Amino acid sequence: MVCCYRWFVYIVFAMGLSLSFSLSAAAVCELKVRIPNFEPLAMRDDQGNWHGIDVDQAKALLDQAGCRYRFIEMPFARGIHKLQRGELDMMLEISKNPERQKTLHFVGPQRLETTHLILKKGLVKPPITGWQQLKTLDLALLIQRGAYLGERFEQALIENPQLKKRLVFLGESGFRIDLIKKGRVDGFFAEKLYLQYRLRSNPDYAMVELHPLVISSAPVYFAFSKISVNEALLNRLTTAYQQLAKTAKLKQIEAQYTGI
Length: 260
What we know:
It is built from 10 helices and 10 strands. It is of the alpha/beta class. The relative contact order is 0.19.
């Protein structure tokens, strides 16, 4: 009986340690977050601290969840690859599509992303307002490597093979205006809020104009790796988002940088 009692105590003790360890592991929330060095989404101040729309919205969500985080600057396409492999935990403003849903969790939406075509001023007249005009467009356009601009844009490239051939894929988006100034490209795809911010902060952007045609308009999300973020942590982050959504915090952050 003494022997059996000792074994019983040992098993209960071991189960208690196991349960304690599991609870401790579930409580740990330290995320590696990919960000770009790209105004107004992410930028460093004079002290080397990160801020911007994406950075501040990530901080708001993770602070609400009680998580710690580390920002890692990285090109978009490489970030998606590492996120899918579990080498990163989180990315910001990611479009949801069936292929990405196989490897990523999506929480949100973070905000609505509206993308336009931005061209050198006066290059195309009249302004591009419809998809039909893209069928005859013969310009060199920058697009971020790994970006997804929706099914309608993919169809437009099929309808205009020449345009598809002249796309220039760029890992970092910060050089776009420089390439236009040098005559290397004619324009690029970007969010309306990006141009609004740049017009206020960089006089070089007076040389470009936004065309009315909306290339894509869809919600973008906080995305998490299915390899490194388990169900318990995902539920914790989802709950934090739901709590945050009851306030206007995310919209206030966006307005802080866009002025709208």
